[in-house]
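thread: overnight batch results

M.L. [08:02]
morning all. the overnight job finished for the chain we discussed friday. pasting input first so we're all looking at the same thing
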Amino acid sequence: MALVAGSYERFIWGFSLKTLTASSDSSETLALAPLFSYPAHTGPVRCVAAAPRAGLAASGGADDSVRLYDLPTAADLGPLLDPSAAVSALAFYSRGPVPRNLLAACDDGALHIYDADGFALLTTLRAFQRHEAVEALAVHPSGRVALAVGRAGSLAMLNLVRGRRSFACRLERPASAVAYAEDRDGGDRFVMAAEEKVTLHDSVDARIIHEMDCGKRVLSFAPAKNGVLYTGGEDRGITAWDLSSGMVSSRIEGAHATRVKGIVVFDNRNNGSELCNLIASASSDGVIRIWDVRTIGNAKPTPLAEANTKARLTCLAGTSLKFDEENQMKRTRCIDLGEHS
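M.L. [08:03]
and the structure it wrote out:
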């Protein structure tokens, strides 16, 4: 498993989640081992994405570029320079463990669609009229459609097969995040965050099923395959919501000392057959933590692992790919932050 984080200071960080065994009692602990860190962009890193079960990641910056990374070898694969504005959202579409497409949305409303094999630009769509900036992006598990929310309050559905916008409307309040999700019964849903509210919608007719009040502004969320949505933001905690009832199922109070800027739910292991109980969170003070969701019900759970980048983190993404540890040790390059300060 691996994580990628971006920051206002232009740096990108990669970490692998390693299991350490104590020689004295053979007990196992988790640790976030650094893969790389360096100034990947010439402006703040706006977004990151990772293929859920592959070693491929991408970052988008305010410098109008996308950069690609191979996580098992800790290699920078180079930039994509097609965007003509700041890259505000990224999403991979994968079929099984194989990433098929990368979608990059920009502040000028453009949505660039790449083939994940070679990263040739397949097409560019206009998500919104009047060049409204795209704030967030989500690809349906089928890969046939995507949702985009705009900074001025628009919602658009994009037909990725025909390469055109199929639906657009105005929201009551601008949304800052969108994602596809399933409830406990396998219902096809999507969620949107607007200020302190998160709404659950039916994917067929977009009707609101539940509205969840998080108390303070939501800055990040991540759905899990067991019908749970994890949210975080200005309340500095992590809340688990049951999407079938729209009620809080558990919560970590004070998960971080500052705002939660990113949450990652690790995909199920063994090609989806084995449940993974780990989630990751990142805060604006640079701290990344790993949690076991089975302990969230405790009064004050302890993170399983932690890393401090000492930077103002803006985004977080992760992959459930299990690295070959021997090859990783041989090929990992870890660049000290001090060399670039």
